[in-house]
Each structure stands twice: as C-alpha cells, then as structure tokens.
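Memo subject: From amino acid sequence to discrete backbone structure tokens
Keywords: amino acid chain, backbone geometry, structure tokens, three-dimensional fold.
Body of memo: The sequence and its backbone structure tokens, given next.
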Amino acid sequence: MAVSTGADEWQADGLDLAGYLHRLQLPALAPSRGALAELHERHVRTFTFDNIDVFLGQHPGVSLDRVQEKFVGRGRGGYCFEHSTIFAAALQRLGYDVRRHLGRVGDPTTGRQQGRTHMVVEVVLDGERLLCDPGFGMSLRRPIPMVDGSEDDYLPGWRYRMRHTRGGWALDRHRDGGWEVTHTTDELEVRPVDVVMGHHFTSTFPGSHFTQGLILTKHLPGSHVAVTEETLTIRTPGQPTEHRPLRPGEHDEWLTALGVPLTADERSRLLDKLKDP
C-alpha cells in the first residue's frame, strides 16, 4: 500500500514506519476498522507503560525522534505522551485521519484538580470517531467509538464506556459493580508544544506521582500486570484481581517477565533505587 509522507508540525514523515511495524510484527495495511484494532492491540502488547526514565531522572523528551529511539530502536516503552506520539505518527503515515487530544486523569466531579496530563488519539474512519488510548496504565485494548453511551466489553469483565460531557468526553471503566472515570478529554486543539509542556510538568513536578515511584504495566496474553515499588497487581478477565506485596528480588524477575530491555547500567540503577527506603 502507499503510505502518506506529507510533512506536518508533528513531523510524522520522520517516523521509521517500517521499523515500528517490525516491532509490532505487522504489515502496512490500508486503513480499516479491523486493521486499526489490530494495530492498537499489538501496540499495547508490545510496549510497556512505564515511567522508568522519569524515575531514573534521564527522560530524553517526547519529540518523535526521541520517542522512536526508545520504542523502535530499543523496544522500550514509556508513558502516555510517548505512546500517543508514536502511535499517532504511525497512523498518519498509514493514511488515517488523526487528531490528538489532551485530558485529565480521574473523575473531575470529586473536586480534585488535575492538569491536562494525559494524551489520547482520535481517528476518524468512514465518518466514525474512534478513541485510541494506547498509553494508559490500564490501556484500552482496541479503539472505542466516541458516541455517548457506547460500551465495549472486549473481554468478559473488562467493560469500557464513552460518555459525552460538557466540553469533551469521559472514558469509564466498569469496576467493582459500578463505573469509574478513568479520564476525561477535551476538544481543544493540541499542538506539539502542549505535549512538551504536559510532559515537563508530569516528569519534573514534585507532586507528580510519576516522579515519586515506579509504575510498570503491560498487557500479557490473558492478563494485565502492574508493578510498583511495593506491589504487584494481576488482573485476569472473569477472575478476582490478585494484589499483593512484592517479594524481595521480584522487581528483577518482573523486568524480565515483562520484557523491559534496559541496559545493564539502567537495570542496576533502577534496582538500586528500588532498594532505597
């Protein structure tokens, strides 16, 4: 298929599309609902959601060239600004109509103020708006229609819902018998500088949870695993969630099990930092 190479402010033409698709072990397919769903799921199964570079104080930035050095060049993962940056660029190159959105994590009705520190990708395909969210701790496995009240029960026990709100959209996840707001996104135009600013706050502000401890998650076949400094959480559709303290030395085991390709120095520094009281 022919892919788009038109330059734009997001510099999508600089993406190593062949390298990205090779990481996902997918061919370049013409835009379709099925191809988009497969690309989305393969992305979240290939790359971890993590804040390792922030936690180690070595984050290279969120420009496309820096992100693809990590994702394509090394097979590393990252957090929302990185996931959505490279995913959106790949979609553009494949010929999709792409829009980027920023949002706020959590429920805005609780009174807790949240900055616009989450990034998602919208695709308009055959007149339908679809939300792609490859860079969330408990990421969507596939796009969900941006239609008020639309639901997706991709696997038994993992239900998501879209709601139209004043000024934007809310993505809910069904949990413990009720709906929980994961994040809200708005319709404001997003420019590259907005992503840089959001990343700077998230990766440097002392109150940001990304600067305070480890977050490492990944979709594995049949389950979703989340590792923090102290705990392990394994969610399996249709089964009770396993949540327990990590045993001594288990961080090292999960870095291997989740396929996190750190250098020897990065791994050593990370494990040493996780030992600190």
Remarks:
- The longest strand covers residues 97-105.
